[in-house]
Amino acid sequence: MTFDLKQFLAVKQKVIEQHLSDLLTAETSAPASLIAAMRYSLLAPGKRLRPALVFMAAQAAGGSDAQALPAAAAVEMIHTYSLIHDDLPAMDDDDLRRGMPTCHKKYGEALAILAGDGLLTLAFQTLAQHFPARTAAACCLALAQGAGAAGMVGGQVDDLAWERGDLPRNLDALEHIHACKTGALFRACLKLGVFAVQSERAEGTDQNLLARLDTYGRSFGLVFQITDDLIDVEGNAADAGKEVNKDAARGKLTYPSLLGVVESRRRAQELAQQALGAVAPIGDAAMPLVALMQFVLTRDR
Predict the structure, then answer these.
(1) Listed residue (160, 196, 182, 1) closest to 82, CA to CA
(2) Are 68 and 61 in contact (CB under 8 A)?
(3) Each residue's pLDDT tens digit in the chain (301 positions)?
(4) Helix/strand/coil (H, E, C) string of 190-204?
(5) What is the CB-side half-sphere exposure of residue 235 using CA atoms within 13 A?
(6) How far apart are CA 176 and CA 196, in angstroms?
(7) Where does the chain have alpha helices with state H?
(8) Considering its fold, how many domains does the chain have in total?
(9) What's the CA gap between 35 and 283, in Å, rounded?
(10) In whole angstroms, what is the distance from residue 21 CA to residue 137 CA?
């Protein structure tokens, strides 16, 4: 049976972008300039992989897109806030994101920071407003853990420390940082998809399913980072939608700089097999996850 990932992602992208737009439109009491900056970054062209992971996990848990929609929106808000802040001059200092000027280039640094703050808090507001209490609590906890000091934010801190030469430059350190900076939010996406569907059940959530998806998420996050590093080395700005060759110029430790291109690709293949092995027992319901892993291995943007 052939699975059409491109069509799957296109459908999910349309659904999530309409929902994100509706959620911003509903914020009628917020300053118009703030909503404009939030909307500019949140609805900029993108693959929406993180919402897609939420939908995929919900499918694996026996649920529907409608059940998972608030969680999918929340993770995309968190992801976009992180991009806005990462692009700032004090962080990665980027001028281009998703093929467009970064938020601070368009709206200035102060409003960009506040737009990121607005998206961060709106994510948790969305979960609290649109889910029953037990589901909202489980989702808020998982998202806070994935995005917070021991997850995405902590990974970014360590990444900056690397640039100062404060951390060891080896594979263990590299993978620990990216497991936090990139992978923690991917893992949260998968948890949220299950929680959105199963948290209200009398028997609770399927712990075996959560464990399999978490293993997938750990490997998926590292594969995504490896291919991101390879794009920075081998890609071009038009295809990537952002500036390339910046990591090498800044002396950042990346998979290609540490392992070389060939070994980096081998490591990605090894991690991909671990991910696919974890979800294989789920059966047909995991087909989107399998296809997405295969896509990420060969992506060029």
Answers:
(1) 182
(2) no
(3) 679 999 999 999 999 999 999 999 999 999 999 999 999 999 999 989 999 999 999 999 999 999 999 999 999 999 999 999 999 999 989 999 988 999 999 999 999 999 999 999 999 999 999 999 999 999 999 999 999 999 999 999 998 887 777 778 889 989 999 999 999 999 999 999 999 999 999 999 999 999 999 999 999 999 999 999 999 888 654 554 545 556 655 667 789 989 999 999 999 999 999 999 999 999 999 999 999 999 999 887 7
(4) HHHHHHHHHCCCCCC
(5) 20
(6) 28
(7) 5-25, 32-42, 49-60, 65-86, 103-107, 109-130, 133-147, 152-163, 171-178, 184-198, 207-234, 237-240, 246-249, 255-259, 261-279, 287-298
(8) 1
(9) 42
(10) 24
Task: For residue 254, give the CATH number of its domain.
Answer: 1.10.600.10
pTM value is 0.93
φ/ψ (deg, to 5) at 101: -55, 140
Do β-strands 96-97 and 100-101 pair in parallel, antiparallel, or remain unpaired? Answer: antiparallel
Token pair in block for residue 153: 């934010």
* Six token digits for residue 95: 């001028």
For residue 96, the cross-strand partners are 101
Q: What residue numbers bound the domain in which 279 lies?
A: 5-298
Phi and psi, residue 96, nearest 5°: -130, 135
